[in-house]
């Protein structure tokens, strides 16, 4: 949890939380979690973020979100490639990922939701940094100066996967001294063992 000097009422007045989740159980847990924490201003959608991205779901927030934190699904055999190919949407302006590169499809969708000064932190598989199939999209993200940093994280950090992952930081409005630069942190060895999991 994040500590804040703002009261819960002030947080509810000044912020709105937006969530989209395909899995029903996770969707229900997310909403219950918000309610238990006293969050009253939120939109939560039970939809596919790639193929159901429109004015009735999270797509209505295109270019309107200031901050995003996400951990998209890994290893999808097909994230919705045919939909992306035929959609004509500008969220694919940096390239349409291959069928098996759904993690990058989610990254591009997150980028599409951000405002012109928005920032995002996204946990993705390590392969997103070096797979040949997504090299052109990575190049386009870098050329457009959207990537602020990459943090490489150790294995065994999550219950759902034991693989090492990386934390992408997108920033559409870098400070002047950080423009056309990407900071990189190697956190592979920076962890504390807690039971069978690692904490960074």
Q: Identify low-pLDDT runs.
A: none
* Distance between the amino and carboxyl termini: 15 Å
Count every beta strand, where a strand is a DSSP E run of 2 or more residues: 9
Main sheet characteristics: 5 strands, mixed
What's the SSE pattern? HEHEEHHEHEEEEE
Structural class: alpha/beta
Broad shape? globular
* Average of pLDDT: 91
Q: Quote the beta fraction.
A: 15-25%
Helix proportion of residues, in percent? 10-25%
Strand order of the largest sheet: 3-4-6-5-7
Number of helices: 5
Instruction: Indicate the radius of gyration in whole angstroms.
Output: 17 Å
Structure, described:
With 200 residues, this protein is α/β, with parallel strands linked by helices. Helices cover 24% and strands 24% of the residues. The strands form three sheets. The protein has a five-stranded mixed sheet with strand order 3-4-6-5-7. A two-stranded parallel sheet has the order 1-2. It has a two-stranded antiparallel sheet with strand order 8-9. A hairpin with a 2-residue loop joins strand 8 (192-194) and strand 9 (197-199). The longest helix has 13 residues, at 24-36. The chain is globular. The two termini are 15 Å apart. The mean pLDDT is 91.
């Amino acid at each position: 949890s994040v500590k804040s000097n703002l009261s819960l009422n002030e947080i509810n007045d000044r912020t709105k939380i937006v969530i989209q989740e395909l899995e029903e159980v996770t969707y229900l847990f997310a909403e219950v979690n918000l309610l238990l924490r006293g969050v009253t201003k939120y939109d939560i959608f039970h939809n596919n973020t790639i193929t159901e991205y429109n004015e009735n779901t999270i797509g209505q927030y295109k270019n309107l979100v200031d901050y995003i934190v996400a951990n998209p699904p890994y290893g999808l055999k097909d994230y919705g490639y045919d939909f992306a190919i035929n959609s004509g949407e500008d969220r694919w302006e940096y390239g349409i990922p291959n069928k098996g590169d759904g993690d990058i499809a989610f990254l591009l969708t997150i980028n599409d939701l951000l405002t012109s000064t928005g920032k995002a932190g996204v946990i993705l598989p390590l392969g997103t940094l070096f797979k040949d199939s997504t090299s052109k999209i990575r190049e386009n993200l870098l050329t457009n100066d959207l990537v602020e940093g990459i943090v490489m994280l150790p294995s065994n950090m999550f219950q759902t996967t034991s693989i090492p992952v990386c934390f992408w930081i997108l920033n559409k409005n870098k400070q002047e001294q950080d423009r056309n630069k990407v900071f990189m942190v190697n956190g592979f060895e920076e962890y504390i063992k807690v039971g069978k999991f690692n904490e960074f």
